[in-house]
Structures are given as C-alpha cells and as structure tokens.
Amino acid sequence: MAGILNKLRNLDAYPKINEDFYSRTLSGGVITLLSSFVMFLLFFSELRLYLHTVTETKLIVDTSRGETLRINFDITFPALACSILSVDAMDISGELHLDVKHDIIKRRLDSNGNTIEARQDGIGATKIEKPLQKHGGRLEHNETYCGSCYGAEAEEHDCCNTCEDVREAYRKKGWGVTNPDLIDQCKREGFLQRVKDEEGEGCNIYGFLEVNKVAGNFHFAPGKSFHQSGVHVHDLLAFQKDSFNISHKINRLTYGDYFPGVVNPLDKVQWSQDTPNAMYQYFIKVVPTVYTDIRGHTIQSNQFSVTEHVKSSEAGQLQSLPGVFFFYDLSPIKVFSRYLG
C-alpha cells in the first residue's frame, strides 16, 4: 500500500516549493483576492449563460377552422347595479348570445366597494305564491301553473311563469317592457323593487365566454337586449332613468389561458365617466399564440393589442347605447413561441 502511495506522489506535476524560497507580500495578497473575485464572477456568468433559455419565435399563417375562443373577464362597475347589467356576445357569422348568464358570477358592491352578495345571475328568484293564471284566475290547489305572456306567446299553449320568461318572450317579439309593475310575475317577484333596492350599488362581474373563433364583439350594458329589424337594442324603459354611469375598471381580460411572458394590456385599466351617458369601445386585435416551455408542454392561447374610443351623449339623449364594448378581430398570423435550453 505504501508503494502505491509513493508512486502517486511521484505523479504530482506541481510539487510544493519550500517556504524558504518565497515570501508573502501585501501586493500579492491583493492580486490573489482580485483574481479570485474575477474567477468567481466568470464562473457564475458562464453558469448563468449555460442555464439561460433561448426563445425561438416563428410566424405562420393560421389555417385553423371551427375552433372556439375563450374570453376570461373580471370587470367592476362601481356605479351600475347588478340587477340592470347584462352581457351580450355576437360575431360576424351571425351567432348571438343575448343576456348571457351561464358561467358568469355577479357580485353586488356597496358604495365603498365591499361585497354585499355574490351569486350566479338568474339564480335565487323569489317563489311566487298563488300567481295569476293565463286564463285570468289565481292558481288553485292541484292546478298546474301557466302564466300569461301578455300577448308575446309564440304558440297558443306557451306559458311565462316568471318575470324573466315574460321579458324573454317580449325580447323575441322585439318588444320592450315599459312597466314591469303591470306584469303579475314581475310585480310578485319584486323586479322593480329589487332595482330600487340596489340603486347606488356597484357590480363586479366575472366569468368567461366561449365564442366562435371569428371576429365579433361582446359588451356590458344596462337593460334587456333584443333584436328589432336587424338592429341590436337594449330595453331601458323599465328602469325609468335617463342616464347611466358606466365608469368601470377592468381587473382582468384574457383571450385564452395564461402563459409566461404574456402581457395583457387591459389589465387594471380604469375609466371614470364625466358625461351622463357614454359608450366605451375597445378595439382588440387578437393574435393566436402557441407557447411551448422547456419541458415540451404546449399551451394554446392568444395575445392582443388594443385601441380605445369613447362616445358620449347628453342626458336624455341616448344617441348611442351606454355600455362597455369589446370589438375583437383575429390576426391571420399565428405565433409559435418555443423555449430552448
């Protein structure tokens, strides 16, 4: 064993110099310290460069067809009550989604922005006791309820059992509900009373829309929407107001899932209304994006850019529908973003 160790010692190419043949100096110590520091920096610089990922970006023509686009939103209206706020979506293919309630949550806010109540829209309607039947009498024991649609029945046997049913039947006819208190269902459910009770409140509305992957728009506006002679109209008569404050804050707006590095330009954007009525318009260019991380995991999403415009009108003169409108168009170019190790 000792012989093997001696042979290893003989292989040492850098034998130690006897201390009698060198001396330690201050300048030598300073040089040693500086060189050690430089070597330390060079080591970590090279290590950081080695671990740094490189982004490879490629642009191709987007040939996808028949896909859907998911729009995630979270918007606060500090001066618009949840009871009068509706969401509509439409696209150039002619598909309409009026007064969307599915996958949408409304949170009532007090004047200080604190939450009063949060629930899915359309859930929790007041139970009607002995409502007015279609034939004119009150609901009797063991009798099936069938409420009147007040002339808006599409078929003779149609029934409108809630205020929402009546408003929907009127919407399909292209009519407006001028006085909900004259409708038994609305009166018993306290529709106008609920609107009055929520006066002065705000609303935080959040959720998502699943729309066709074509150009279109979605908007938040007061009143029940309907189409009349090919024109999109909102019924505002029931609220008996000549102005609406559409001040809003966009807490979050995304087209698709989040991926690292994405910048959503409308997040935290806030507008305060100065005129009695206003239409806020956001024109959005959506760019399909495929993100692939260093592990090969792929996320199908979108990026977007935006321009803004505001149209205002005087009180009592609704030249344009008050609301917040998002007009979006799809870019024909798809971006592939891939991270390389």
UniProtKB/TrEMBL annotation:
Chain ranges of the Endoplasmic reticulum vesicle transporter C-terminal domain: 149-337
Compartments in which it is found: Membrane
Pfam families according to UniProt: COPIIcoated_ERV, ERGIC_N
Ranges of residues in domain Endoplasmic reticulum vesicle transporter N-terminal: 8-97
Broad class of where this protein is predominantly found: membrane
Entry keyword annotation includes Membrane: yes
InterPro entries on file: Erv, Erv_C, Erv_N
Name assigned to this protein: Endoplasmic reticulum-Golgi intermediate compartment protein 3 isoform X3
Gene name tied to this protein: LOC104777490
